[in-house]
Amino acid sequence: MGYHQIRFEKDSDKAIHNESLQKALVNVTDRFRSARNKASSKVSDWEELRTAARKIKKDTIANLDHYLVQLEESVKRAGGKVHWAKDADEASRIIVNIAKDGKVKSVVKSKSMATEEIELNSSFEQAAIKVVETDLGEYIIQLAGEHPSHIIAPAIHKTKDDISKLFSEKLGIPYYEKPEELTKVAREKLRSEFLSAGMGVSGANFAVAETGTIVVVENEGNARLTTTVPKIHVALVGIEKLIPRYEDLSLFLTILARSATGQKSSTYVSFITGPKREADIDGPEEFHLVLLDNGRSKILESEQTRESLYCIRCGACLNNCPVYRHVGGHSYGWVYSGPIGAIITPQLMGIDKAPELPFASSLCGACHDVCPVKIDFPKVLLELRKNVIESKEKNIRAGGAFLEKAGIKFWRFSVEHETIYKLLNKLSYYFQTPWKQSNGKLRSLPYPFSRWTDERDFPSVAKKTFRERWKELKDETG
Amino acid sequence: MTNSREEILHTIRKGLNGVSSKQNFADGNFPDEAREIKQLTIEQRSKLRTQFISELKNVNTNVLEAHDEDEIKKALLKLVKEKKLESFSIWESQYLKELKIKEELKNAGLKLVTAKNKNRIAKSDIGITEVDYAIADTGTLVLLANKNQPRSVSLLPPIHLAIVQPENLASNIKDLFVILKSRLAEGDDITSCMTFITGPSRTADIELNLTLGVHGPKELFVIV
Amino acid sequence: MVKVLRDLGVEVDFIEEQTCCGQPAYNSGYQEDAKAVAGRFLSVFDKALKSDPDRETYIVCPSGSCTSMVKVFYQDLFKNSPELLDKIKRIKNITYEFSEFLVKVLNTVDVGAEYNGIITYHDSCHLLRELRINEGPRQLINSVKGVELREMEMHDACCGFGGTFSVKFPKVSVSMLDEKIECIVNSGADTLVSADMGCLMNIEGALSRREIPIKVMHLAELLASRGK
Predict the structure, then answer these.
(1) Strand order in the sheet with A213-218
(2) Which residues contact A21 (CB under 8 A, 6 or more apart)?
(3) What is the CA radius of gyration of chain B?
(4) Domain boundaries, position B60
(5) Taking a contact as any Cβ pair under 8 Å apart, which residues of chain A between 313 and 342 contact chain C?
(6) Which are the contacts of A51, defined by CB distance < 8 A and separation ≥ 6?
(7) Can you point out the beta strands (E) in C73-201?
(8) How many residue contacts between A and C have a Cβ separation below 8 Å?
(9) How many Å apart are CA C107 and CA C87, to the nearest integer?
(10) Using CA atoms, how far apart are residues A6 and A341, in angstroms rounded to an integer?
(11) What pLDDT shows up at residue A17?
């Protein structure tokens, strides 16, 4: 995986000052949030479903080796091939080799976060194999050369105007204003790609161990085309996507679309088990399942963070996160954003590459409340914060780290010694004088406290401490 | 490649040290449950059909109600006229054969396009299928791929027409999976591809504006 | 808080040895430091409880954050210290957030308070999501004579404080705060009430800097009001 520098503070600052992005973020989070609330409120046993879904994921992850082996057997039985990729490079290599073996000149891709994670497209490009994103949102960002900014709606940071200009510039067509016209252009352009591609690459939302079935959920139809028309179908699937039994799908499909977009069901769900049967008239002749580890197996080690693997990639956490709402997906620096990005990016990349992310949250817990598999994000974030602080890595954090550590030690010293604590309480009344305004508030405190007072006043300390008042209150009765 | 497999499994086992437990998911008695689900009174069936129709409309599916063979054919021919259809592709499946849909359309002057050629099928005006099952509470069609039921027919042409027999309606997705699982328990092949279809193709990727007809069929018609 | 409780006939004591529950360190990733401070909290209160074991005693705290630290997070912080779990259990079972104590233990929503104003209430995150408390404060506010309670839009959205988050990522924090201020202003209220000092400092800090004349009060202050 190419080293990628994640700079949350810098990028989020840019995002906050980007007016059109701010509008888009309010739009997407408001709408998805209210749609999810509406849809889930109509399901009378929604909370029980969440609990059941979490339990299935917990049991599956706790026996992941067993289910992976079972999945492999099932896929082989159905006539498919299974490949195991321990990291991004290996996964890309495997997939590019499948294309080379099949003498494939062009590839169509349906939406898959995992393929973004491994940067598959650039591997294809390096091998001189044409690759075309077919999901409209992904197509847009492919043309723009950007990362997705939201799990479900990857191009949501772009306005209609941005997209019209982009299409006009990159596709050499006139400037179309209406979304219908832009969509029509994409449909026509991509149709010919589907029909001529030698290989289709998809991800999968679920992989059923019992039957060897992979499940692909979508609204556009491009995943169906990707997995039906070309001769070869390759599915890249993270090892955590497993569920044990065929019927478990009914539970997960019930909660997935409702959590993601508020739909009762997404438009298309494809349940693919191996390549076409001999008598089938259409469908791929070859089916390859590429199982992706890329750091997931390591996450299993820690019981505190293991539930990061329960995620079904619905995006509900993003839509309900106040931080995401204000900073957008690109601030998280990688393909996964919002609360799920904050917990898996540091774990997949290594905390030394993303030390800010576990702190990029106010721990409000709104994500935990809406996650269909009840991932306790605050708990995982707290554990990751501990890992960052206790990490032996040098320079893992920015300069402020020394000041912060000194501050915490000072704080600890004072709260462990009541006399010091009382003394500081008393003295702070006098220390604050240079910054005290006539309205009783503190302004323009020196660094690092300026990070508060730059845009907010700070209350001043009262002359009488509570302990002093207590001396009087103690003897009063109600 | 084998190395990676062993490495990955080894890391997993190491990480789960002590946690791994024997799974005891009780396997349901699917054939019995399926039988129970399928036993519906005429009134229940009718209610299910009404719910199904309402849900179909909620997801921008065009519904043509028909109560017998004649009405089905009438609805079909009306659609042909309205949409000025000139060519069609079709499943060679049992119910459609019984209804003689292929012959009706040929007689109406439409050209039959074989599903064997993907370029041609993409150019046909309409793809006609029946359904293996349908889910009433979400307005979902369930299609299984096999030698008489190619995937492309419901995917490539710009219009998809599905003829639904009410006795194939399941109440909800949970019941449907009981039925499917009971078939697997009885030895049926799972088929290479099962597809759930709920409405025509759509996207909201541009500023969350809903647009119909992206890559899959722009219009979905159901005769039920 | 002392005043309100005494008025309801509760005998109130303040253990002078106490300092902090340890949450700032826990939230910032300094778990060893947090354990030291939290351990002290447990000893101080355990000692106080043991001095009069037969008396019906509760620990009441005017903060959703501190209360959740004791009731929810201590178990996690000390998961590797089974010898402390018993002490933690005893203490957390008698620890209550202030509004929760009034409503659930004293079964009271009307404390005889009086205040003239239009109030909007901000649900602080720990109180709402860790302790699941949102109705009690509203019932208490509604029972204050002279008060009209108006819900603001997004009353349960985080104000941007998040402890050290407010100074680690101040721009993000203030962006969230700005939206909260907008909702408060749009509600038409003249007073903002909440039950956590962190949120109150944050919100008041912005209101005062932007010279918006909306009063900010802790729930306890409101309940101690006896009109002008």
Answers:
(1) A242-243, A206-208, A213-218, A268-272, B193-197, B140-144, B133-135, B169-170
(2) A15, A157, A328
(3) 21
(4) 39-223
(5) 322-323, 325-327
(6) A374
(7) 95-97, 114-121, 145-149, 191-194
(8) 166
(9) 27
(10) 12
(11) 96
User: C137: which 2 tokens?
Assistant: 């404060």
Q: Does the structure's ipTM exceed the value 0.90?
A: yes
Q: Dihedral sign, CA of A138, A140, A145, A151?
A: negative
Give domain status of residue B9, yes or no.
no
- Alpha carbon dihedral A227, A229, A232, A234, in 10-degree steps, equals -20
CA distances from A158 to A66, A161, A165, A215 (A): 43, 8, 11, 29
Residue type, B13: R
Residue B13 included in any domain: no
Which of A441, A456, A473 is best to mutate for the C interface (most C CBs within 10 A)? A456
Q: Helices marked H in A42-131 — which ranges? A: 46-62, 64-77, 88-101, 113-117, 120-126
Burial degree of A238 (CB within 10 A; 0-12, 13-18, 19+):
buried
C-alpha span between C140 and A329 (Å, rounded): 40
Query: What is the rounded (10 degree) CA torsion for B185, B186, B189, B194?
Result: -60
Q: Which pTM was predicted?
A: 0.95
Provide the CATH number for the domain around residue B161: 3.40.50.10420
Q: Is A435 on the interface with C (CB under 8 A)?
A: no
Residue C175, judged by CB atoms within 10 A of its CB (0-12, 13-18, 19+), counts as: buried
C-alpha A78/C-alpha A81 separation (Å) is: 9
A458-459 and A441-442 beta bridge pairing: antiparallel
- Contact (Cβ atoms closer than 8 angstroms) between residue C177 and residue C206: yes
Compute the radius of gyration of chain C from its Cα atoms.
18
Count of alpha carbons within 13 Å of A294, Cβ hemisphere only? 27
Side-chain half-sphere CA neighbours of A356 within 13 A: 17
pLDDT in the model for residue A478 = 44
Angle between helices A46-62 and A64-77 (to 10 degrees): 90
Q: Domain-by-domain residue ranges, chain A?
A: 8-297, 406-475
Q: How far is it, in rounded angstroms, from Cα A367 to Cα A379?
A: 12
Structurally, at CATH architecture level, domain A8-297 sits in 3-Layer(aba) Sandwich (3.40)
Rounded to whole angstroms, the Cα distance separating A123 from A134 reads 18
Which tokens in the block code for residue B174? 């949970």
A287 backbone φψ class: left, alpha, beta (φ>0; ψ -120 to 50): beta
Q: In whole angstroms, what is the distance from residue B76 CA to residue B95 CA?
A: 15
B214 to chain A, any CB pair closer than 8 A? The answer is: yes
> Cβ separation of A365 and C40 shorter than 8 Å?
no
A284: left (phi over 0), alpha (psi -120 to 50) or beta: beta
CA–CA distance from A15 to each of A142, A326, A336, A426, B206 (Å)?
21, 8, 17, 42, 19
Whether B153 maps to a domain, the answer reads: yes
A interface test, pick of C175, C196, C207, C211 with most A CB neighbours within 10 Å = C175
Pairwise CA distance, residues C85 & C225, whole Å: 40
CA distance A330 to A323: 12
CA A110 to chain CA mean position, Å? 18
Q: How many domains does chain B have?
A: 1
- Give pLDDT tens digits along chain B (224 positions): 459 999 999 999 999 986 656 565 666 788 888 888 888 888 899 999 999 999 999 999 999 999 999 999 999 999 999 999 999 999 999 999 999 999 999 999 999 998 888 899 999 999 999 999 999 999 999 999 999 999 999 999 999 999 999 999 999 999 999 999 999 999 999 999 999 999 999 998 888 888 898 899 999 999 99
Task: Evaluate whether residue B34 is within a structural domain.
Answer: no
The backbone torsions φ and ψ at residue C119, rounded to the nearest 5 degrees and listed phi first, read: -110, 140
Which residue bears the tokens 């819900």?
C151
Give all chains having 3 or more CB-to-CB distances under 8 Å with chain B: A
